Amino acid sequence: MISDAKRYVEILSHPEFHYFPAKPATVKEEKDFLRKSKRLRKNGSLYDFAIIANGKHIGAAGIRIIEQHPHICNIGYFVDRAYWNKGIATLAVEFLETYIDQQLPYVVRIEIVTAKENIASQKVALKCSYKKEGAMKKYLKIGDLFHDCYLFAKIVR
Q: Is the dihedral of CA 63, 136, 146, 68 positive or negative?
């Protein structure tokens, strides 16, 4: 929701938050991004969810359908630094998989892309039984830097 913009900026601007491509500089910038996301939700190519713990908004997780290949989706997640290493991202991935199973029967393949340096996110993918399929050179741009990434995938049907 657009009203979540301030909280997302707080989470994503933490100095230890390195490997997520969205780095909104201002609340206005994040609101603009969320407005674009709203349009994607309306056309059925994006499904996103807030992550709430103990009544506090601590992150988000989402599903993006690959337009050219609608049987494939990419999932992603981010969690507030204060909640890292508590299994929350793993629970988010499990929730997304259940949603896909129940609501998106045309999805056959789920992908997770992680920066090569993002060991924690790779552990989440492996813990959720995704298979590492390969490396992608300079795949992810964060600010002015390009990062090599790993592709993890799971066949669900």
A: negative
Domain count, the chain: 1
CB of 17 within 8 A of CB of 81?
yes
CATH number at residue 38: 3.40.630.30
Token code pair at residue 59 = 């992150």
Closest CA to 156 of 121, 87, 106: 106
**Residue 24, domain extent:** 2-155
CA atoms within 13 A on the CB side of 17: 21
Report how far residue 39's alpha carbon sits from residue 2's, in angstroms, rounded to the nearest whole number.
12
Question: What mean pLDDT is predicted for residues 41-63?
Answer: 93
pTM score, two decimals?
Answer: 0.91
Numbers of helices and strands, H then E, in the chain: 4, 6
